[in-house]
Design a protein that fits this description.
binds manganese (II) ion, 12 helices, binds guanosine-5'-monophosphate
Protein backbone atom coordinates (compact mmCIF):
# COMPACT_ATOMS: atom_id res chain seq x y z
CA UNK A 1 0.00 0.00 0.00
CA UNK A 2 1.18 3.51 -0.76
CA UNK A 3 -0.27 6.95 -0.25
CA UNK A 4 -1.65 8.44 -3.46
CA UNK A 5 0.31 11.37 -4.82
CA UNK A 6 -1.05 14.85 -4.44
CA UNK A 7 -1.80 15.08 -8.17
CA UNK A 8 -3.78 11.82 -8.02
CA UNK A 9 -5.81 13.29 -5.14
CA UNK A 10 -6.31 16.56 -7.02
CA UNK A 11 -7.48 14.63 -10.09
CA UNK A 12 -9.91 12.55 -8.05
CA UNK A 13 -11.35 15.75 -6.58
CA UNK A 14 -11.61 17.36 -10.03
CA UNK A 15 -13.57 14.34 -11.27
CA UNK A 16 -16.23 14.42 -8.53
CA UNK A 17 -19.29 16.66 -8.59
CA UNK A 18 -21.45 15.97 -5.51
CA UNK A 19 -19.26 15.87 -2.42
CA UNK A 20 -19.94 14.74 1.13
CA UNK A 21 -17.28 15.82 3.64
CA UNK A 22 -16.96 14.65 7.25
CA UNK A 23 -14.47 14.57 10.08
CA UNK A 24 -14.27 12.43 13.22
CA UNK A 25 -16.62 12.19 16.21
CA UNK A 26 -16.19 15.07 18.69
CA UNK A 27 -14.65 17.22 15.95
CA UNK A 28 -11.62 19.36 16.81
CA UNK A 29 -10.04 22.47 15.31
CA UNK A 30 -8.01 20.51 12.77
CA UNK A 31 -10.89 18.45 11.38
CA UNK A 32 -13.26 21.43 11.26
CA UNK A 33 -10.75 23.84 9.74
CA UNK A 34 -9.71 21.26 7.15
CA UNK A 35 -13.23 20.36 6.05
CA UNK A 36 -14.40 23.97 5.70
CA UNK A 37 -11.27 25.01 3.77
CA UNK A 38 -11.67 22.04 1.42
CA UNK A 39 -15.40 22.69 1.00
CA UNK A 40 -14.81 26.32 0.05
CA UNK A 41 -12.08 25.27 -2.38
CA UNK A 42 -14.37 22.74 -4.06
CA UNK A 43 -17.10 25.39 -4.29
CA UNK A 44 -14.69 27.61 -6.22
CA UNK A 45 -14.44 24.73 -8.69
CA UNK A 46 -18.28 24.82 -8.96
CA UNK A 47 -18.77 21.54 -7.12
CA UNK A 48 -21.75 20.75 -4.88
CA UNK A 49 -20.49 20.23 -1.32
CA UNK A 50 -22.18 19.23 1.94
CA UNK A 51 -20.43 18.74 5.28
CA UNK A 52 -22.11 16.43 7.79
CA UNK A 53 -20.34 15.43 11.00
CA UNK A 54 -21.38 12.95 13.63
CA UNK A 55 -21.24 15.62 16.36
CA UNK A 56 -21.89 19.38 16.47
CA UNK A 57 -19.18 22.03 16.10
CA UNK A 58 -17.91 23.44 19.42
CA UNK A 59 -18.94 27.10 19.75
CA UNK A 60 -15.36 28.41 19.73
CA UNK A 61 -15.02 27.30 16.08
CA UNK A 62 -18.28 28.88 14.90
CA UNK A 63 -16.45 32.08 13.85
CA UNK A 64 -15.11 30.17 10.82
CA UNK A 65 -16.95 30.75 7.48
CA UNK A 66 -19.30 27.77 7.79
CA UNK A 67 -22.52 29.38 6.52
CA UNK A 68 -24.53 27.16 4.22
CA UNK A 69 -22.02 24.29 4.21
CA UNK A 70 -23.31 22.10 7.04
CA UNK A 71 -26.27 19.78 7.48
CA UNK A 72 -27.20 18.02 10.74
CA UNK A 73 -27.95 14.71 9.07
CA UNK A 74 -28.00 13.08 5.65
CA UNK A 75 -31.10 14.29 3.70
CA UNK A 76 -33.48 11.48 2.73
CA UNK A 77 -32.87 11.35 -1.03
CA UNK A 78 -29.36 12.77 -1.03
CA UNK A 79 -26.91 11.62 -3.68
CA UNK A 80 -23.16 11.98 -3.36
CA UNK A 81 -20.67 10.75 -5.94
CA UNK A 82 -17.64 11.29 -3.72
CA UNK A 83 -17.08 11.30 0.04
CA UNK A 84 -14.03 12.74 1.76
CA UNK A 85 -13.05 11.66 5.30
CA UNK A 86 -10.82 14.17 7.06
CA UNK A 87 -8.65 13.22 10.03
CA UNK A 88 -10.16 9.75 10.41
CA UNK A 89 -7.71 6.90 10.93
CA UNK A 90 -10.47 4.34 10.29
CA UNK A 91 -14.15 4.43 9.22
CA UNK A 92 -15.29 3.93 12.84
CA UNK A 93 -13.96 7.41 13.62
CA UNK A 94 -16.74 8.81 11.40
CA UNK A 95 -19.26 7.75 14.05
CA UNK A 96 -22.82 8.07 12.75
CA UNK A 97 -21.47 9.05 9.32
CA UNK A 98 -19.81 5.68 8.76
CA UNK A 99 -22.92 4.15 7.17
CA UNK A 100 -23.51 7.12 4.85
CA UNK A 101 -19.94 6.77 3.58
CA UNK A 102 -20.21 3.04 2.88
CA UNK A 103 -22.81 3.63 0.14
CA UNK A 104 -20.79 6.22 -1.81
CA UNK A 105 -18.85 5.22 -4.92
CA UNK A 106 -15.58 7.07 -4.38
CA UNK A 107 -14.08 7.55 -0.93
CA UNK A 108 -11.08 9.81 -0.37
CA UNK A 109 -9.24 9.42 2.92
CA UNK A 110 -7.12 12.42 3.98
CA UNK A 111 -5.32 11.98 7.28
CA UNK A 112 -2.02 12.28 9.17
CA UNK A 113 -2.31 9.47 11.73
CA UNK A 114 0.37 6.76 11.69
CA UNK A 115 -2.18 4.00 12.28
CA UNK A 116 -4.44 4.89 9.33
CA UNK A 117 -6.19 1.81 7.94
CA UNK A 118 -6.16 2.95 4.27
CA UNK A 119 -9.91 2.54 3.94
CA UNK A 120 -10.34 4.91 0.97
CA UNK A 121 -10.40 4.35 -2.78
CA UNK A 122 -7.86 7.17 -2.64
CA UNK A 123 -5.66 7.63 0.40
CA UNK A 124 -3.63 10.74 1.13
CA UNK A 125 -1.93 9.87 4.41
CA UNK A 126 1.06 11.96 5.44
CA UNK A 127 2.20 11.40 9.01
CA UNK A 128 4.74 14.21 8.71
CA UNK A 129 1.96 16.79 8.20
CA UNK A 130 1.45 18.76 11.43
CA UNK A 131 -2.27 18.93 10.75
CA UNK A 132 -4.72 17.74 8.11
CA UNK A 133 -5.10 21.48 7.48
CA UNK A 134 -1.53 21.42 6.13
CA UNK A 135 -2.50 18.65 3.69
CA UNK A 136 -5.55 20.65 2.58
CA UNK A 137 -3.32 23.68 2.01
CA UNK A 138 -1.19 21.57 -0.33
CA UNK A 139 -4.24 20.10 -2.07
CA UNK A 140 -5.80 23.54 -2.66
CA UNK A 141 -2.54 24.70 -4.21
CA UNK A 142 -2.40 21.57 -6.38
CA UNK A 143 -5.97 22.36 -7.51
CA UNK A 144 -4.84 25.94 -8.23
CA UNK A 145 -7.64 27.24 -6.05
CA UNK A 146 -7.33 30.78 -4.72
CA UNK A 147 -7.03 30.68 -0.92
CA UNK A 148 -9.21 33.55 0.31
CA UNK A 149 -8.93 35.06 3.83
CA UNK A 150 -11.75 32.82 5.15
CA UNK A 151 -10.05 29.65 3.92
CA UNK A 152 -6.74 30.92 5.29
CA UNK A 153 -8.38 31.35 8.72
CA UNK A 154 -9.61 27.74 8.56
CA UNK A 155 -6.18 26.34 7.72
CA UNK A 156 -4.54 28.52 10.37
CA UNK A 157 -7.03 27.22 12.96
CA UNK A 158 -6.22 23.62 11.97
CA UNK A 159 -2.51 24.20 12.39
CA UNK A 160 -2.78 26.34 15.53
CA UNK A 161 -4.87 23.75 17.39
CA UNK A 162 -3.09 20.59 16.21
CA UNK A 163 0.38 21.94 17.04
CA UNK A 164 -0.70 23.13 20.51
CA UNK A 165 -0.08 26.74 19.42
CA UNK A 166 3.18 25.76 17.68
CA UNK A 167 4.57 23.91 20.70
CA UNK A 168 4.29 20.18 19.90
CA UNK A 169 6.94 18.11 18.16
CA UNK A 170 4.94 18.16 14.89
CA UNK A 171 5.83 21.87 14.53
CA UNK A 172 8.43 22.28 11.77
CA UNK A 173 9.89 24.91 9.46
CA UNK A 174 7.20 23.86 6.99
CA UNK A 175 4.50 24.70 9.56
CA UNK A 176 5.89 28.20 9.89
CA UNK A 177 6.37 28.54 6.15
CA UNK A 178 2.67 27.84 5.57
CA UNK A 179 1.71 30.15 8.42
CA UNK A 180 3.80 32.90 6.80
CA UNK A 181 1.70 32.52 3.66
CA UNK A 182 -1.56 32.46 5.66
CA UNK A 183 -0.70 35.68 7.47
CA UNK A 184 0.13 37.29 4.13
CA UNK A 185 -3.30 36.17 2.95
CA UNK A 186 -4.92 38.13 5.77
CA UNK A 187 -4.99 35.88 8.85
CA UNK A 188 -4.81 37.70 12.19
CA UNK A 189 -3.12 35.40 14.75
CA UNK A 190 -4.45 37.55 17.61
CA UNK A 191 -8.07 37.41 16.43
CA UNK A 192 -7.99 33.66 15.87
CA UNK A 193 -6.27 33.01 19.21
CA UNK A 194 -8.99 34.99 20.98
CA UNK A 195 -11.79 33.18 19.15
CA UNK A 196 -10.37 29.72 19.83
CA UNK A 197 -8.82 30.05 23.29
CA UNK A 198 -10.31 33.14 24.92
CA UNK A 199 -14.01 32.64 24.28
CA UNK A 200 -14.62 30.43 27.31
CA UNK A 201 -17.85 30.44 29.25
CA UNK A 202 -17.59 30.99 33.02
CA UNK A 203 -18.75 27.38 33.45
CA UNK A 204 -15.80 26.08 31.48
CA UNK A 205 -13.34 27.64 33.90
CA UNK A 206 -15.39 26.31 36.83
CA UNK A 207 -15.17 22.90 35.16
CA UNK A 208 -11.40 23.32 34.97
CA UNK A 209 -11.34 23.97 38.72
CA UNK A 210 -13.28 20.77 39.39
CA UNK A 211 -11.10 18.76 37.03
CA UNK A 212 -7.86 19.99 38.61
CA UNK A 213 -9.13 19.02 42.05
CA UNK A 214 -9.16 15.37 40.86
CA UNK A 215 -5.47 15.40 39.86
CA UNK A 216 -3.73 12.23 41.05
CA UNK A 217 -0.28 10.68 40.56
CA UNK A 218 1.60 7.41 40.46
CA UNK A 219 4.06 7.02 43.35
CA UNK A 220 6.98 8.23 41.22
CA UNK A 221 4.88 11.17 39.90
CA UNK A 222 5.68 10.23 36.30
CA UNK A 223 2.05 9.46 35.54
CA UNK A 224 -0.69 11.97 36.33
CA UNK A 225 -4.41 11.68 35.67
CA UNK A 226 -7.61 13.66 36.00
CA UNK A 227 -11.19 12.45 36.12
CA UNK A 228 -14.27 14.08 34.59
CA UNK A 229 -17.68 12.93 35.73
CA UNK A 230 -21.04 13.62 34.15
CA UNK A 231 -22.01 15.43 37.34
CA UNK A 232 -19.21 17.97 36.81
CA UNK A 233 -20.51 18.81 33.35
CA UNK A 234 -24.05 19.09 34.70
CA UNK A 235 -23.06 21.29 37.65
CA UNK A 236 -21.10 23.72 35.47
CA UNK A 237 -23.53 23.69 32.48
CA UNK A 238 -20.77 22.45 30.20
CA UNK A 239 -20.35 19.55 27.82
CA UNK A 240 -17.66 17.21 26.57
CA UNK A 241 -16.20 19.75 24.12
CA UNK A 242 -15.47 22.13 27.00
CA UNK A 243 -12.90 19.71 28.39
CA UNK A 244 -10.67 19.91 25.30
CA UNK A 245 -7.10 20.68 26.27
CA UNK A 246 -7.55 20.30 30.01
CA UNK A 247 -5.39 17.17 30.05
CA UNK A 248 -2.48 19.48 29.17
CA UNK A 249 -2.41 20.83 32.72
CA UNK A 250 -1.49 17.33 33.90
CA UNK A 251 1.17 16.97 31.22
CA UNK A 252 2.63 20.39 32.06
CA UNK A 253 3.99 19.12 35.40
CA UNK A 254 7.76 18.70 35.21
CA UNK A 255 7.94 15.14 36.59
CA UNK A 256 5.12 13.85 34.38
CA UNK A 257 5.90 11.66 31.36
CA UNK A 258 2.35 10.47 30.67
CA UNK A 259 -0.88 12.35 31.40
CA UNK A 260 -4.28 10.70 31.24
CA UNK A 261 -7.87 11.92 31.44
CA UNK A 262 -10.86 9.72 32.19
CA UNK A 263 -14.15 11.19 30.99
CA UNK A 264 -17.47 9.58 31.83
CA UNK A 265 -19.59 9.61 28.65
CA UNK A 266 -23.01 7.97 28.78
CA UNK A 267 -23.23 5.44 31.58
CA UNK A 268 -20.98 2.46 30.94
CA UNK A 269 -18.64 4.27 28.53
CA UNK A 270 -15.45 6.10 29.43
CA UNK A 271 -13.33 8.18 27.04
CA UNK A 272 -9.66 7.92 27.90
CA UNK A 273 -7.14 10.44 26.53
CA UNK A 274 -3.38 10.01 26.72
CA UNK A 275 -0.60 12.55 26.29
CA UNK A 276 3.11 11.85 26.49
CA UNK A 277 6.14 14.11 26.53
CA UNK A 278 8.60 12.01 24.59
CA UNK A 279 9.08 9.61 21.71
CA UNK A 280 10.02 6.89 24.24
CA UNK A 281 6.52 6.82 25.74
CA UNK A 282 4.36 5.89 22.78
CA UNK A 283 0.80 6.39 24.01
CA UNK A 284 -0.56 5.32 20.63
CA UNK A 285 0.51 1.80 21.69
CA UNK A 286 -1.29 2.10 25.02
CA UNK A 287 -4.53 3.35 23.42
CA UNK A 288 -4.16 0.46 20.96
CA UNK A 289 -4.44 -2.02 23.84
CA UNK A 290 -8.00 -0.71 24.29
CA UNK A 291 -8.97 -0.58 20.59
CA UNK A 292 -8.09 3.11 20.31
CA UNK A 293 -5.28 4.90 18.52
CA UNK A 294 -3.79 8.26 17.62
CA UNK A 295 -0.25 9.62 17.58
CA UNK A 296 2.89 8.79 19.59
CA UNK A 297 2.30 11.70 21.96
CA UNK A 298 -1.51 12.07 21.82
CA UNK A 299 -3.96 9.21 21.68
CA UNK A 300 -7.33 8.07 22.93
CA UNK A 301 -9.82 5.23 23.28
CA UNK A 302 -13.31 4.52 24.56
CA UNK A 303 -13.69 1.77 27.17
CA UNK A 304 -17.03 0.08 27.88
CA UNK A 305 -16.90 0.00 31.67
CA UNK A 306 -17.43 2.11 34.78
CA UNK A 307 -15.11 5.01 35.59
CA UNK A 308 -13.56 3.15 38.48
CA UNK A 309 -12.89 -0.10 36.59
CA UNK A 310 -11.57 1.76 33.56
CA UNK A 311 -9.16 3.76 35.67
CA UNK A 312 -7.89 0.60 37.33
CA UNK A 313 -7.45 -1.33 34.05
CA UNK A 314 -5.82 1.54 32.19
CA UNK A 315 -3.43 2.60 34.94
CA UNK A 316 -2.30 -1.01 35.32
CA UNK A 317 -1.39 -1.14 31.60
CA UNK A 318 0.30 2.25 31.70
CA UNK A 319 2.49 1.37 34.68
CA UNK A 320 3.36 -1.98 33.08
CA UNK A 321 4.24 -0.22 29.83
CA UNK A 322 6.48 2.29 31.61
CA UNK A 323 8.32 -0.47 33.45
CA UNK A 324 8.97 -2.21 30.14
CA UNK A 325 10.20 0.91 28.32
CA UNK A 326 12.51 1.81 31.26
CA UNK A 327 14.51 -1.37 30.81
P1 LIG B 1 -8.22 13.30 22.12
O1 LIG B 1 -7.62 12.69 23.35
O2 LIG B 1 -7.95 14.76 22.05
O3 LIG B 1 -9.65 12.94 21.91
O4 LIG B 1 -7.46 12.65 20.90
C1 LIG B 1 -6.06 12.66 20.77
C2 LIG B 1 -5.65 11.84 19.58
O5 LIG B 1 -6.04 10.48 19.74
C3 LIG B 1 -6.29 12.29 18.28
O6 LIG B 1 -5.25 12.35 17.32
C4 LIG B 1 -7.29 11.26 17.91
O7 LIG B 1 -7.27 11.00 16.56
C5 LIG B 1 -6.87 10.03 18.69
N1 LIG B 1 -8.05 9.37 19.30
C6 LIG B 1 -8.82 9.84 20.30
N2 LIG B 1 -9.81 8.98 20.61
C7 LIG B 1 -9.67 7.92 19.77
C8 LIG B 1 -10.41 6.69 19.58
O8 LIG B 1 -11.39 6.39 20.28
N3 LIG B 1 -9.94 5.86 18.60
C9 LIG B 1 -8.85 6.17 17.83
N4 LIG B 1 -8.47 5.29 16.89
N5 LIG B 1 -8.16 7.30 17.98
C10 LIG B 1 -8.54 8.18 18.94
MN1 LIG C 1 -5.07 16.42 13.32
Amino acid sequence: LRSNTISEIANALRKGDDFLLATHVHPDGDGIGAEIALALGLKQLKKKVTIINSDPIPSNYCFLPLEGLFKDRVPRHAFFSCAVALECSEPERLGKMKDAFSGIETIINIDHHPGNSWFGDYNYVRTEACAVGEQIYDILNALKVRIDPGMAACIYTSILTDTGSFSYSNTTWRTHEIVEELIKLGVSPTDIYQEVYESNSPGKIQLLGQILSTLAFSTDKRVAWVTLTRKMFKDTHTSYEDAEGMINYARSIKTVDIAISFTELTSGKVKVSFRSKSQEQDVNKIAGMFNGGGHTRASGCVVDDTLENTRKKVLEKVLQYMKKTDK
